[in-house]
Design a protein that fits this description.
Blueprint: E1 2-7, E2 13-19, E3 23-30, H1 33-36, H2 44-66, E4 75-81, H3 85-102, E5 106-110, H4 111-117, E6 129-134, E7 139-146, E8 149-155, H5 161-171, H6 178-186, H7 211-223, H8 228-256, E9 261-265, H9 272-285, E10 288-290, H10 294-297, H11 301-313
Parallel strand pairs: 1-4, 4-5, 6-9, 9-10
Antiparallel strand pairs: 1-2, 2-3, 6-7, 7-8
Helix pairs in contact: 2-3, 4-11, 5-6, 5-7, 6-8, 8-9
C-alpha cells in the first residue's frame, strides 16, 4: 500500500508518500519560519494563506521525488487535528480532492499519533513503550500498546514546552523559533547559575505546567538586567529546568507502567540537552530512550503516512464530509 500523506496542522506544509507504513518514498516540507519570524510566533491567518500557496506544489514535489503519479497512490492520510482550523482545512480539502478524483480511501489522522509513530520510519520498536510528544503546541505522555492503541497518561495544563521556549526567547529578544536559539545560546551558559522553578504539580503527577517558569524568567530579568554572559546563563538555566521536568516525568511513567522503552518526538525532541539527559538517566535505570531524527521530530507528512497506513489496515475510513478539529482528545477514549 502506498499512502499519500498530507500535514498542515500549523505552519509547515508537508506531503509524503509512504510504502507499507515504513518506507518513505518522499517527504517534502515547506517551512513558514520566515513568514512568522518578525511576529515571534505563528500568525494563524498568515499560516492558512501560505498553506493555500504551498499545498499543490508540495504534493507535486512529493510525487516527483517518489517517481510516482496519483494513479499509483492507494490511499490518502491527512492530518485532521488538533491544530489551527484554517491550516488544517487546506490539507483536508486537498486530501478530499485526491480521494474523490482517484476514488481511493481517505482517513483523518490525529497529529499526535503521527508524532508517536514517527520512530517507525527508522526503527522497529516492540510495544509497549512510553511515548512523549513535546512540541510548540503539545506536551503529553502516552502508554503506546499498539500501532492504533494509545493510553493518555498526562498532558500540559497550560503552556506546552515548546511554547515556553518560544515565549521566553521572544521576551529576551532572541528571535524565532525560540527552541533552536535558546539551545544554541545555552551552550555558552551555566545551567546552575539561576535556580528556576520545576513545576511537578503534585507528587508523581504525569501532568505538566510550564507557564510558571516563563513568569519566573520574566521576573528574574526585570530585577537582573542581563549582560551577554547573563543571557547565556538565563538560557541554560531555563533549558535545564524544562529538561529536568520532561525527563523526570518520562522516567516516572516508565517505572509506573513497568516499561523499559521510551520514545520522544515533536520539535522539542530535537533539543540536544534533552536527548543527552534522557539517554543518561535511562542508561542508569535500564530504560532505553529513542528519538527520531530531527527532521522527523518536527512536523512532517511522513509520520502522518505511518499513522494513516495503520488506521487504514484496521479498516478506518473517513468520508468527504469530515472537518477539521482544533482540539482532538487522543488516547482518552
Amino acid at each position: 500500500m502506498i499512502v499519500l500523506a498530507i500535514e498542515s496542522s500549523c505552519d509547515d506544509t508537508g506531503a509524503a508518500l509512504i510504502e507499507e507504513g515504513r518506507r518513505p518514498l518522499s517527504n517534502i516540507v515547506s517551512s513558514q519560519d520566515e513568514v512568522h519570524r518578525k511576529y515571534g510566533g505563528v500568525v494563524p491567518e498568515l499560516a492558512s494563506r501560505r498553506h493555500l500557496e504551498n499545498i499543490v506544489p508540495v504534493i507535486k514535489g512529493a510525487l516527483q521525488e517518489a517517481h510516482k503519479t496519483l494513479d499509483e497512490v492507494d490511499a490518502v492520510g491527512v492530518t485532521r487535528g488538533p491544530g489551527l482550523v484554517g491550516s488544517l482545512l487546506v490539507g483536508i480539502m486537498a486530501g478530499k480532492a485526491v480521494s474523490y478524483a482517484k476514488d481511493i480511501p481517505m482517513v483523518g489522522v490525529n497529529h499526535l499519533m503521527g508524532h508517536l509513530l514517527a520512530i517507525f520510519l527508522e526503527n522497529e520498536i516492540p510495544f509497549p513503550f512510553i511515548g512523549m510528544v513535546a512540541s510548540g503546541g503539545h506536551t503529553a505522555l502516552y502508554l503506546a500498546e499498539g500501532f492504533v492503541s494509545f493510553r493518555f497518561l498526562g498532558g500540559t495544563r497550560d503552556d506546552a514546552a515548546g511554547e515556553a521556549f518560544d515565549k521566553v526567547a521572544k521576551y529576551l529578544g532572541l528571535g524565532y523559533p525560540g527552541g533552536t536559539i535558546i539551545e544554541r545560546l545555552a551552550r555558552r551558559g551555566d545551567s546552575q547559575a539561576i535556580s528556576f522553578p520545576r513545576a511537578y504539580i503534585a507528587k508523581d503527577s504525569l501532568d505538566f505546567s510550564f507557564s510558571g517558569i516563563k513568569t519566573a524568567v520574566v521576573n528574574y530579568v526585570r530585577s537582573h538586567p542581563p549582560t551577554d554572559d547573563g543571557l547565556a546563563n538565563i538560557a541554560a538555566s531555563f533549558q535545564e529546568a524544562v529538561v529536568d521536568v520532561l525527563v523526570d516525568k518520562i522516567i516516572w511513567a516508565a517505572q509506573r507502567y513497568k516499561v523499559d522503552r521510551a520514545v520522544v518526538s515533536g520539535g522539542v525532541a530535537c533539543n540536544g540537552r534533552l536527548r543527552e539527559r534522557l539517554n543518561q538517566r535511562g542508561e542508569e535505570l535500564g530504560i532505553r530512550a529513542y528519538f527520531p531524527s530531527p527532521h522527523l521530530c518536527r512536523d512532517n507528512a511522513a509520520m502522518i503516512g505511518v499513522a494513516g497506513y495503520h488506521l487504514l489496515k484496521e479498516g478506518r475510513r473517513d468520508g468527504l464530509d469530515i472537518g477539521a478539529l482544533s482540539r482532538w482528545l487522543f488516547g482518552r477514549e
